[in-house]
Amino acid sequence: MTLQRGLYILAGLLLLVGFVTLGLLVDDRPPPVDVALADAFRGQYTRPAGQVADLITNVLGPVLPFALGAVLVMIAWRRRELAVLCVKLAVVLMLCRLTSLVAKPLFYRERPREFPDLSYPSGHVVAVACTGFVAVLLCAWTRPRLTRLAITIAVAATVIGALCRVVLGVHWLTDTAGSVLAVGGVGLISAAGLGLLPRPGDPA
């Protein structure tokens, strides 16, 4: 294992520690920032802002990993030399997406308002973040010049998705922060373990 790959794994482990620590800290009682935002947006889900947020999260949500998975299948089918890369990216995508499904029962946190399912971490934000993470890796390996643009779009989409979930009152702010920590941790560890990090062209 190279030093740089080891650093990626270490960073991933630290993010996962942060994810677990945050989950334990907010599990019983939401912090003031959560309460303040929940109060500020209370009832917005029935108003125009909430309706817009709902429309956005229909796109920036669980459908995204499936869409990217279909893209990876198409790339692997049309360009056989990229098949192994696409399989590795699909594994990272799947592992990152599983973070919310595995973690929610461990952190039995209630939503800001009555809503099905548990709260920590946000499954919608996990879906957006893991899609963005893998899309950045895909660009880094196939279209390096688009990597910075992919990072910008991924970050913007994750922030917008997180804001929409808070506006709708179905997640606390810390739920969305935990989602990013979880995806970042699992993403870095799995990508480094599969040889996708360091990226091509990264300094040694």
Short description:
The protein has 204 residues and is mainly α. Helix content is 71%, strand content 0%.
Describe this structure in words.
The chain crosses the membrane at residues 7-26, 55-75, 82-103, 123-142, 149-173, 179-197. The protein has a single domain (8-193), classed as Vanadium-containing Chloroperoxidase, domain 1, CATH 1.20.144. The mean pLDDT is 94. Helix content is 71%, strand content 0%. The chain has eight helices and no strands. The two termini are 13 Å apart. The protein is globular, with a radius of gyration of 17 Å. By secondary structure, it is an all-alpha fold.
Please report the total strand number as a whole number. 0
Instruction: Look at the structure and give the mean pLDDT.
Output: 94
Instruction: Quickly give the CATH architecture.
Output: Up-down Bundle
The topology string of helices and strands comes to HHHHHHHH
- Give the fraction of residues assigned to helices: over 70%
The SS-based structural class is mainly alpha
Number of domains as seen in the coordinates: 1
What is the tally of helical segments? 8
Morphology: globular
What oligomeric state is this? single chain
CATH topology: Vanadium-containing Chloroperoxidase, domain 1
**Could you name the CATH class?**
Mainly Alpha
Distance between the termini: 13 Å
**Percentage beta strand:** under 5%
Q: Could you name the ranges where pLDDT drops below 50 across 5 or more consecutive residues? A: none
Cα-based radius of gyration, to the nearest Å: 17 Å
Major sheet details:
none
